Structure prediction request, 683 residues.
Amino acid sequence: MKILFVILGLLTACIISLGVGGGSVSLLHVFDYLSGRPLGDDPEYVEMVLVSIRLPRTLGAILVGTCFGLAGALLQTVTRNRLAETDLLGINGGAALGVVIGLTFFGAETVSGYMGWSFGGALFGTMLVVAIAGRGGITIPPLRLVLTGLAIASTVQGVIGFILLQNQNSLDQFRFWVLGSLAGVTLDGIMASLPGTLIGILIVIAITRSLGALRLGDDVAKGLGHRPAVTRFAAIAAVTLFTGSAIALTGPVVLLGLIAPYAARYFVQSSMALFFIVSGIMGASVLLLADSVSRIIVRPYESPVSVVVVLIGAPLLIHIARSPKQLSSLNS
Amino acid sequence: MNISNLKPVPAGRVIRGGSFSWVLPYRAGLVSLVLISITLVLFIYALMAGETSLNPVQVFKSLTGSADWATNLLVGEVRLPRAVAAWSAGAALGLSGAMLQAITRNRLASPDILGVNDGATFMVMIMVMFAASPVVGEWRISCGGALLAFSILMLLSRNVGSHGHRMLVIGIGVSQLFRSVNELMLSRGHIQHATAVYVWSIGSFVGRGFEHALPAMFGLLICVPWALSLQRHINLFSFDETIASGCGVSVKSVKLQTIFVAVLSAGLGLSVGGPLAFLALAAPIAVSRLVRSSKVAVVGSLLTGGLLALGGDLAGRMLLAPIELPVGVVCRIFGGLFLLLLLVLPKRNAG
Prediction:
C-alpha cells in the first residue's frame, strides 16, 4: 500500500518537473498535452518546450536520481553505515577526476565520450574507499569513514584544480558540469548513460537476497549458502556503474545518496528488495523536485540542482551525525 | 586520536633554585630556532625566485633601497608584500589550529573541517554582493563569518569538548550548507563580483600585500600573548575537564577564551588570502611530532603555519611556472593526503 504512495509521489514530481520553468508553459498545458487535448494558442511552441527541453531534463533527473539513490542504498547496506554516500566517501570526486582527465588529455567531449573515464574514476574512488575501510577486516567506524572520504575528495579537488588551471579550454567545459546541473542533459546523453544503469540494476536484483543475508553477519550468510566476498564485490561494481553513468550525465549531485535511503526507511522496514526499489524511486523524486526548485529559485538565472539537494541533505547529515540512535541502528 | 592518549614526555630540563623550579623547554626552543631559520631561508628565496630571478646580493640591495628602480619595485612592491601576507596568513591559521585541537581534545579539529572557512567565505560573499564598493576579504567580515559558523556548530554539537568524530561530521554538514548557499549566491551574483570572490575562495596570494596582512599581524600581536597566557590552563584540559577544574582552572572561561582566540585568528588568517585547506590541521600536528610533546604549542604552530603557507605559495609559483597555481590548490592536494595518512596509519603513528 505504502509503495503506491511512493509511486504516486514520483508521478507528481514528474508532472511538476514538466510544468515548471522558463517559457510560458504551465501545468495545465502539461495535462492537456498528456491527455491529447488541443494546446492553447500556440501548440507548436508548447510542444517544443515540453518535448525538447523539459522532457529530456525530466528523464535525466529520473535516471540520475535512481542511480544515486540506489548507489547510496547499496553503500549503506554494505558498510552498515547510514552516512555512506558516494559524495561523502569520495567516489564522486574520483569520477569527476576521471572525467577531467578524459576532457583534458584525451579530448573526450560528449557524454558517451567521457563515460569510460567516469567509470574508471568512480572505480578508483570506490577501490580507495574499500582499501581504507576494509583494512584488516575491521569495519571502520561510520564517522571516521566520512572523514576519510573528505580527505580523498579534497585531494582530488586539488588535483582537478591543478589540471584545469593549465587548460583554460577544459575549464570552460568543466565549469557548467562540475556543480551538478541537469541543464545540459540531452536525449543522446541519456541513451549513453542508460546501459550502465541497467546493468547496475540487474546486479542489484541478483544480489538483493544475498545482501539481506549479509545483514545477519558474514557467518550466518555463509551458512545460508551465500558468498559474502562475491556479494560485496558485485555491490561495489554496481555502485561504480551507477556513479559513473550518473556523473558522466550531470556532474556530481551531492548528498542525494544520503537522502533517498533515509526517506525510503520511512516506507520500508524489513524487505531488502522493497528498500532498494523505494530508494531508487525516492532518489528520482527528490531530484525531480530539486531540479524544479532550482529553475525558479534564482530567477531569471538558474541554480545548479546540486545546491538545492545539499540544502536538504546537509541538515539531514547533521541530524544523522547528531543522534547516536541513527548511527548505531545499522552499524552493529 | 586525542591528545590524552599520548604518553607524557618531559618537556625539557628542569632548573631548580631553592623553592623555585622552571622547566627549560630546550627541545621546543631548538625546534623553534630551526623553524625560524628555515622560514628566513624561504623568505629570501621567495624574494629571489620568479619570472625574473634575482641573486641574493640584488635582493639585499633592494631591501636597503640601493638597487635599481625596477628591482626595488619588484621586491618592495610585489614579492616582499606577498611573502609577508603568506606568512601572516599561515601563522594565524597555525595558531588557530593549535588552540582548536587542544580545547576540543581532537587532533582533527581544524577550521576547515569544522565549517569555519566556509562560514567566513559566506560572509565575505554577502558583503561583496551587497556592498557598494566591496573589498574582498576584509578582516572584520571574515572574522564575523568565522564566529557565526562556529556558534552554529557549538549549538548543534552541544558539548565542544567531546571526543571522537561526531563534532567533525556535524562540522562537515555545516560547511556543506554554507558552501551550497555560497554557490547559490555565485550563480545569481554579478559576474565581476563573482570572479573576485571565486578567486578568494580558492585561496590565493596573488595581489595580496601589506594592507591585507596588516590586520592579521595586529591581530596576532593580541592573540599570541593571549594564547600564551592560556597555554598552561589548556594543557590541563588534555586530561579531563574535571581534573582541570580540580587544579583550579576556571573551565568555562578558559574554554570560551580559547575558542574566541582560535576563531578570531582563523578569521584573520582567512582574510589575507582566502581559505588554505588543512593548513591549520597540519601545523600543530607537525609541531607536536617535532617537539615530541603533547602540550599545546602556540609558538611552534604559529611558526610552522607561517612556514607552510610561505612554502605552499612558493611551490604554487614555481611548480608549473610560468602558470601560477593558487596556494589553496597546493594546500588541498598535500593537506588532503596528509589527512588521509593521519586517518589510515595505525593509531600509534597517527597520534
User: Anything to note?
Assistant: The CA atoms of residues 268 and 274 of chain A lie 7 Å apart. Chain A has a mean pLDDT of 83. Chain A touches chain B at residues 83, 88, 132, 135, 141, 143-144, 146-148, 150-159, 161-162, 165-166, 179, 254-255, 297-298, 301-304, 306-308, 310-311, 313-315, 317-318, 321-322 (CB under 8 Å). Chain A has one domain: 17-328.
